[in-house]
Amino acid sequence: MDEILSQNEIDALLSAISSGEMDAEELKKEEQEKKVRVYDFKRALRFSKDQIRSISRIHENYARLLTTFFSTQFRSFVNISVTSVDQIPFEEFIRSVPKKTVLNVYSAEPLDGRLIMEINPNIAYAILDRILGGKGNSTYKNEGLTEIEKILLRQIFEKTEQSLTEAWSSVAEIQPKLEDFEENPQFLQMISPNETVVVVSLSTAIGETSGMINICIPHILLEPIISKLSAHYWMQSPNKERDYESYHKLTKHVQQTQIDVRSILGETTISIQEFLKLNNQDVIALNQAIDDPLTLVINDKPKFKVQPGKYKNKMSVQVLEEIKEVNEDNE
Hints:
CATH class of the largest domain: Alpha Beta
Low-confidence stretches: none
Mean pLDDT: 80
Strand content: 25-35%
CATH architecture of the largest domain: 3-Layer(aba) Sandwich
Membrane topology: Peripheral membrane protein
Number of domains: 2
Helix content: 25-40%
Strand order of the largest sheet: 1-5-6-3-2-4
Number of helices: 11
Protein name: Flagellar motor switch protein FliM
Family: Belongs to the FliM family.
Order of helices and strands: HHHEHEEHHHEEEHHHEHEEE
Domain Flagellar motor switch protein FliN-like C-terminal: 253-323
Radius of gyration: 37 Å
Structural class: alpha+beta
GO biological process, one term: positive chemotaxis
């Protein structure tokens, strides 16, 4: 918002201009100069704020799914949350990554391109320690990971592919697959250094160890679905087609469901003393007149008025009318 001047400040400004202490033309030039903004073409912003917010929502869901998965696998306290979502050149992302780290490269068919998941060494070694029966302590080693440690980490992150699929399901049906595993970021030359990428930073805590997991998503991967990252798409109600096979199966099961049907001849109340004195051939008068229709009860709810009769040598009832349910709110 523009700054609103008080009356005293307005009077002081007019007084300064009148006395010559300030030049109105110079003020206009300064105002024009402020409107000029430096633009770095190397850091071209190819995603709108709306699209960045959508990516953030997707990965907030992913963070929750990853937290649940790791908690179950490690049987330890795990907390993962989205810290920031930024768009930067790919070269800047590579420079920000430590020389020794864990880099998972995923394909995301049917989309083109690959995304990178960078796991801070503190988190990677805490995961290994927990997998091997430790308390989840991080013991960083300068010599890098052994082949066995690489296999263990690859296996655990291959199991997280389903969580990534589920997180993105609201926008696109992707099939992530762990294609490559690297430790040195300099070996990752997948796209042009000036290509814009979205970097999602996840603050991660496993036990007492904390660190970051960074997910790098190139623009080329998001380009086919970029229209689905707008707020308009998220606000649209999905127009789902009816699954006729499931519909017919459900209908068949419902139609075969057994229900309890009873016809009430009449009711009355008697005392305990009268009940104890009942003898053979005693007559009990009911509250049902002989000419009035009976009530047909289905699953303990009165549904129809019926009249008794005989059909194929069996006692039967004929439906006369449906009993309308009374809405208590309209009484």
